[in-house]
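ok posting inputs for the NAP job
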Amino acid sequence: MPHYKVAIVGAGPAGYFTAQALQSLQSDDLTFSIDLIERLPTMWGLVRSGVAPDHPKIKSVSKVFEKVAAEANFRLFGNVELGRDIHLADLTARYDAVVLCTGSSLGKKLGIPGEDLPGSLSAAEFVPWYNGHPDFTNIPVNLNGTTAVVIGAGNVAMDCARMLALNPSELDSTDTADHALKALHASSIRKVFIAGRRGVEHAAFTAPELRELPKLEHTDVRIDASEVSAAHERAVAEYGEVLEKHLASNLEAWRLIAEHPISGHDREMEFRFLSTPLEIKGNGKVEEVIFGINEIQGGKVVATGKTYSIPCSLVISAIGYESAEIPGVIFERGRIANDEGRVVESNIYTVGWAKRGPSGVIGTNKSDASDVVKLIVEDLKSPKVAGDITDLIPTDHLLIDQAGWSAINSSEVAKGEPLGKPRVKEVEWAKLLEIGSNT
Ligand code: NAP
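and the output
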């Protein structure tokens, strides 16, 4: 009976769903051993460090990941970095397949003057900061001013804007990292602009996220009603009266937001569309963002040449992500060069954002993983016999195995329990390694 060894790199949703897909294909004629390798001492990738703390239901998928991890053919190797502690060629020599599930951790750059001023952050920094990613615990986040601008019209921009505009007491019962919760309580930000460069009808927000907005208890949400009706008219002119479901649902959600009465809360979110960021200005720190005003002509977004400015002290750009490069792997357009998950001419594969770019929800990775695992099985030939990752890691390396990760997980959950929180995240590398290696 053939038995194959698969190494998966990256313990986020793509990694766990790949392991699950392999487990589900096991039969009397085909078995796998799965080694999951992760750079961090904490697991679950974006489910832990991406999903907004006020969306706890999305995180319940971690139960699936723990079920995968409980299977006898699964081993975890945390605190092991590909390219530093181990090398790709060493893995490909020992495993029948190596699946890179390393995601997209770098924020795309705006490429405009002033982007690097203090006070200008990428969502790729701000999101892991409030979610307790140990690499981002100490980044400077300036919440001293009154106004923040979030650039981008996708769900990540929406998460960032909500985190800044909610009354922080709404986050007290969540797993927002303690340092971020404290900073958000002390924040003087009261107005958050979200700016999209195209029209309302082109925004990448999804309807469930939009429909939450009129329900916010402590935050008024502003969108110019005439912008929503103009977007509706343009959509009907382009696609006809019967709009595609996603667009119709979004436009309906926008109408509800625009019609929702303003309550006079001291916290506000305001949407600005047809606004291209041209420059972030300030004397040694962010002081304003200059936007170019666009219009739509014949279905196309064009610059009018007119500009306006939003004075602010914090800018967060949430305009998409790119993958961090891995030595020995070819990257193109911000992701691993691949053909439907096969990384050319080798036993290397990729799943998730590293494969297809930063799109889709957590669950998208399940079907992605299942498709790629079918290709892996098609390609498998005679099983490799000798060696695995244990030959590669020095005995004194502080490894976080499944027991170690379980210790971190249970310790966080136990700390959260008396406070009515799902967990209190441990955010320092040293502490995480200490808890995770004392098992
Ligand atoms: P996204 O959905 O692709 O949105 C990116 C936004 O950035 C778009 O509005 C895009 O505008 C804009 N943008 C790109 N380049 C720009 C530039 N140079 N200047 C100004 N704007 C620019 O990406 P995302 O928000 O990072 O989300 C990634 C994926 O995660 C998405 O599939 C999202 O749905 C998912 N996600 C889901 C949830 C949830 O389910 N609650 C939460 C977070 C993320 P154009 O359209 O004009 O290019």
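notes: The domain at 3-105+323-399 is CATH 3.40.50.720 (Rossmann fold). The chain has two domains: 3-105+323-399, 108-321.
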